[in-house]
Design a protein that fits this description.
Layout lengths: L2 E5 L2 E4 L4 E5 L6 H11 L8 H9 L14 E4 L25 H22 L4 E6 L9 H18 L2 E8 L5 H10 L2 E5 L4 H7 L9 H13 L3 E8 L7 H11 L5 E6 L6 H4 L14 H14 L6 E2 L21 E2 L4 E3 L10 E6 L2 E4 L5 H13 L5 H4 L4 H4 L5 H25 L1 E2 L2 E5 L8 E8 L8
Parallel strand pairs: 4-5, 4-11, 5-6, 6-7, 7-8, 8-9, 9-10
Antiparallel strand pairs: 1-2, 2-3, 3-17, 11-12, 12-13, 13-14, 15-16, 16-17
Helix pairs in contact: 3-4, 10-14
Length: about 450
């Protein structure tokens, strides 16, 4: 049982998300653990989700046909018409584009898995496809259109529901938007907060500003009632402006489901546009957690739309952070390879290859899964682990990202220190609350469960 002191009168048990308040100095921890085990017969500890990997799979001898994934990603192209100043892929007009036949073979494989799952389990299964980059998936729109229509045709013939989702830069005309709104289930638009930052960070290849076209895309899709979310990648120096961005978004895009903000990572094109390590630009000077909490407090204090999220500061317990390891969610990339993770690039584990109209599956060893489990062993004694899950294995194993990863870790700890202290004092804070458990502790102390006080959905 991991025990963390919050103050002289309260402790935090991160395995169970319990806060103990009262005479904690003289607690008999053996008695406390017995009480907790009575409360939690299922013992759904935070860590059991990760032990699943070791128990279920031999990481050194895997094959996709042991897993039967029914959700997958497709990177149609490396090409992009934008020249975003922080692009982690450094996308440009050079690179590869998938052939339609390769996508068709991959789609057939994912549908086949869902059908097998359905027959074995007698449960209704589904398939899920996510188009993203790499490059911009809508750049070769005829290819995207052909792929989407093939998935919809397979959906009818196979009797398996298909969810089609996409991340896009939003540089689309109304004819393209009409097809997307009629055939896709969800669209994430990369949009940098307001007109100024969008035009500054996300220029078209010829230097043109992108805001007007992307603004039209967001409004069009909202009007068609498709699920639309926005994602902003923000330079560290600009995090002090996130309140202005938030107010711009809620006033202009009233039906947006979610606005996710993430700090620029020191990889790809960002390495050449800013020196994260320079003496004038030290990461410790950027208080991401402080700006984020200030905006969260403002939103709750003024009862504004609760659309703000950040991958660094989760709004839920993290049951399983990385969905890419072991091939649970394989990606087809532009060289016809099937890999574990799009973002991992050349460090991704090779699962198979599309060749001559077939998918050829490899027996593979997933190094990222081992890195993931090793990180968990190091991190699970940290009080913030239930909300962090040890982070991205790719970033944690990357030399170029290591110093930024340490900074992110410290910011996450600062954030949860503030949240836990507020919960102890007020029992409710920015969407979290304490629920007192009905258990006899002889008035020595009280046990509280940390839970969400709202479902964090837009007021619409």
């Amino acid at each position: 049982m991991n025990i963390f002191k919050i103050n002289d009168n309260s402790i935090f048990l991160n395995e169970y998300l319990y806060i103990i308040k009262g005479n904690v100095v003289n607690i008999d921890f053996h008695k406390l653990e017995s009480l907790i085990n009575m409360l939690d017969d299922s013992k759904e500890k935070r860590f059991n989700n990760y032990e699943y990997i070791d128990k279920r799979f031999d990481k050194k001898k895997l094959k996709l046909n042991y897993i039967y994934p029914n959700s997958a990603g497709i990177c149609l192209t490396d090409l992009c018409q934008f020249r975003c100043n922080y692009c982690s892929f450094s996308s440009s007009d050079k690179g590869r584009t998938l052939e339609y036949d390769s996508v068709r073979v991959f789609v057939d494989y994912i549908f086949r898995n869902a059908i097998l799952r359905q027959k074995i389990s007698n449960n209704i299964e589904y398939v899920s496809f996510y188009f993203a980059g790499g490059g911009e998936p809508t750049l070769n729109f005829e290819l995207l259109k052909k792929c989407v229509l093939y998935i919809r045709t397979k959906e009818k013939h196979a009797g398996v529901k298909a969810y089609i989702n996409m991340t896009t830069n939003g540089y689309l005309n109304n004819e393209q938007l009409e097809f997307i709104s009629e055939n896709l289930d969800y669209v994430l638009v990369s949009f940098d907060g307001n007109e100024y930052f969008q035009n500054q960070n996300r220029k078209v290849y010829n230097g043109e500003k992108s805001f007007d076209v992307v603004d039209n895309t967001i409004k069009y899709l909202m009007d068609k009632n498709i699920i639309v979310e926005l994602r902003s990648t923000i330079w560290l120096k600009d995090f002090e402006k996130i309140k202005d961005m938030y107010l711009f978004i809620i006033n202009r895009y009233s039906k947006i489901r979610n606005w996710d903000i993430e700090p620029v990572a020191p990889i790809g094109r960002a390495k050449f546009n800013a020196d994260f390590k320079s003496s004038n630009n030290k990461l410790d000077n950027y208080k991401l957690s402080s700006h984020y909490i200030a905006l969260k407090e403002y939103i709750y204090d003024h009862n504004l739309p609760k659309i703000l999220t950040c991958g660094k500061f989760k709004d839920s317990k993290v049951d399983f952070l990385c969905g890419t390891i072991l091939g649970f969610n394989p990606w087809l990339i532009t060289n016809n390879k099937v890999v574990t993770c799009l973002d991992a690039k050349d460090k991704a584990t090779l699962l198979g290859t599309i060749s001559n109209g077939n998918i050829i599956l490899n027996e593979y060893y997933d190094l990222n899964a081992e890195i993931f489990m090793n990180n968990i062993e190091k991190c699970k004694s940290c009080f913030a682990f239930p909300f962090c899950g040890s982070g991205c294995p790719l970033k944690n194993s990357s030399d170029e990202y290591s110093y930024a990863s340490n900074w992110e870790c410290n910011e996450i700890k600062k954030y949860w220190e503030i949240v836990l202290n507020h919960l102890v004092e007020n029992e409710k804070y920015i969407g979290w609350e304490l629920e007192k458990l009905n258990i006899d502790t002889s008035d020595e102390f009280s046990i509280y469960k940390i839970k969400r006080s709202d479902n964090y959905e837009n007021y619409n």
